[in-house]
Design goal:
mainly alpha; 7 helices
């Protein structure tokens, strides 16, 4: 029962966070950009997520190419959280374990994205 409550809290936090990001259009200050003068691998993700929600996929790729991949991962986690809450399973943990096998690929993609962001100057 406690496991279900924790998953419900995580799901609620994710949904509320996404709602706040997309509805209030506030800007998030990148510390890398502010203090080091370079764009990090996460620069443009919020704008990319908003573009995906508006079905503007090309614009999302221009903001940050990782936005599509991360959006798919977030949606899958939300779906699996709902499944876990309803059927009292642990599919989210299985999914995260599966993704952790590919952390090196995700790290390399993040570094490449950071380089592309700084070359293109988003």
């Amino acid at each position: 029962m406690i496991n279900r409550v924790i998953k419900l809290c995580i799901f609620s936090i994710l949904v509320i966070s996404l709602y706040l990001i997309f509805s209030f259009k506030f800007s998030i200050v990148c510390l890398f950009k502010k203090y080091l003068g370079i764009r990090c691998f996460g620069c443009g993700l919020t704008r990319g997520f908003i573009a995906i929600c508006n079905l503007e996929f090309i614009k999302a790729i221009r903001y940050n190419i990782l936005s599509i991949l991360l959006f798919i991962i977030v949606v899958m986690i939300l779906i699996l959280l709902v499944y876990d809450i309803i059927f009292n399973r642990n599919k989210v943990c299985d999914f995260i374990r599966y993704l952790s096998k590919y952390y090196v690929i995700l790290l390399i993609l993040s570094i490449i994205t950071m380089l592309i962001n700084n070359i293109n100057g988003i």
